[in-house]
Amino acid sequence: MSHLSHDCMDAGGTTPRMEEVEQRTEQLPRATHGAVAEPTHLEALRLRIISQIAEILENQTHTQRYATGLSELNHNMHQEIVSKLVAAMATMATDDSAAMIAMIPTISQVIDTCSRLDQSLDLLFQQRSQQWASSDQHIQNLMIEFNQTLLELSSVLIEKDLLERQSRVLERIILSHEHISQWKEFVQEILADFYAIFPFNFFYIAFAEANGLSLYLYYLGQCPDEVRAQARGLLSQQMLQSIGLPPDSAVDIEEFNIHCGAEIKTDLNIRMISVPVPDHAPNLAGLLGVAYAAENNLSAQEASVIRAILAVMVMVVGSSKVLSRTLLELEYYAVHDPLTGLHNRRQFNDILHYEIGRSERHKHEFSVLMLDLDDFKDINDSYGHPTGDTSLCAIATALLEHTRNGDLCARIGGDEFAIILTETGPEGARVVAENVSHALREMAITSAQGNRFHLTVSIGVSSYPIDGQTIDTLLEGVDAAMYKAKDMGKDSVCTFDATETRVSIRETRDNAENLREALKEGRIVPYYQSIVNCQSGELFAFETLARLKSPTGETTSAAMFIETIDKYGLARELDLAMINNSFAAKRACMDANRPEANAKIFINLSVQEIQGRGILGYAEELCQKLELPPESIVFELLERDAIGDMTNMRRFLTNLRRKGFAFALDDFGTGYNSFHYLRELRFEYVKIDGAFVRNILTSKVDYALVHNLSRLCQDIDILTVAEFVENQEIWEALKDMGINYAQGYHISMPLPEMKQTLRP
Question: Is pTM, for the whole model, over 0.70?
Fold first, then answer.
């Protein structure tokens, strides 16, 4: 037995061990083994199968080696037995009793060897049976693992053909403007391709709209009426429940038939697959899905493909629905005012252009009304912009109530409205305008704070073809008529009635553009008129007067264009031009050491400068730059402008004196409350209006007014300057009154440079 065991161990010593198999396994290429800290399910399965196969191979090798060793042992023992038996037979042939007796131990040894051989064979068969049992168990485990793996893979893998068909469907799903605007037809195109993957019977789209449920049903094939009724009833109820709407909600059903399948049979067990519209879709809730009737359930591959396509379609349909709704809103607001719902300026101009052509073809009249709310800014300032918006909406409602369906009401600006009255002449248009004006005047509006107030409106009217035959002439006329209504005291209706008004408007606009160019080109320049001491005749100051130079050299006085300057907001540019030029001229006099260098400069300011636009700061910096004494500068402001805003005027004068400048009130005496303003405000100079001065020799009233103004100003320490001194007699009369300074054509004409030219 010991000899047998030794032989078996030697045979097993050359058998591949489990460690060697594992070592070889580790050397094989791996996709995931060792790439992550813990093997995945498939990696663990791979390792387990390799381990079990290696163990089977090791058992088989071990058994083979063991059997080989036993076979060699048996062969050797067999030869030994044969040789001993041959020797025994030879001895027996001699009939030698002693020799035969001597063979007994040998025969006993042969019998023992045969017994041991039997035991070795039994041991071999036993070992083989154990190895077979172990291998059989391993093979069963492998088959179970393999079967389980195939089942798992079959549940997630999709056939190549199915994937290719799915890709072809998804490639067709491309958003475009046409697909968005015609998304229902786009869905039908997709469904026809979808049907090639899975022959379903119904497709549905459900959206929760403002008034209930919108359900779109698509039938894939010929569908009998009873099947349609069954599908409508089942799907509408399930959709209401899925979206969370009450069961009695209104359901708007739209049906489509796609001819790509066989006839749909009756008595079907309808089953559904649904995908919800994503939560991020604004103001949109809904479902998309397929419904099918079949004897068998969907396979895992079919269900996976259908859900994948539905997930894409839900984005397409949901986005198309939202974008389609947005496009409709954009189209609406492209021609409507978002606040009032009336048409906007763009639509107004388009319809006006159309109406001109239509009326020209049919020889019709029509009229245009322009409405501007009176003092609407006060409403916003007093009650807030939300109340202002409420007022605009109320006015829009009133306009619609007092016009016909064929007329057009538009909001063309902040508080401006316009109406096109089709086939309506001037008389009819004025009646409509008066009715609208009366209705708005009587309409009471309540603010958010509970205050009730009323609005009035100024309305201009122009008619085609009497007042104009083009858009420009009609709008120009109605605009002029509306401003005329404003000038008449507001809350009134005016018609466009004179070509001379149109000419005036055009001339004013043309003049404004010419002035704008002149300011850019430096063609508005200062002229200087001397102001002298009325008692001694000595030069005291120069007043800076604006002159417009034409490209050919002619000059125009400020009286011809100052109103246009103010109207079109060019006053600030004019003030800056006068300050820059006059300061530079004074610096030149100082550098040349001329006697005029000691004279002050009177410069006119526009009323806008008292609103804090920084002109004084600019003048102060320029004085520092040119080294001019600020006390040599006197700013003038007309009395009617100075008294318009008392609070800002006080602030302006305080700032003026703090910087070292002086102030003169121009055209004093033209206001209604001149003496009141002398008490409320402090001036260094008062320039008496020339309309009083030029008539002091012929009018006792004017003489008394100028004389009393002079005495009043002397008593309160204000210096006086008399304008329009046109002859020596007026000058002498002013001396007698005690007027401090005088200017006028008798003393000096305005000149392009600071030069004293006093008359003898």
Answer: no
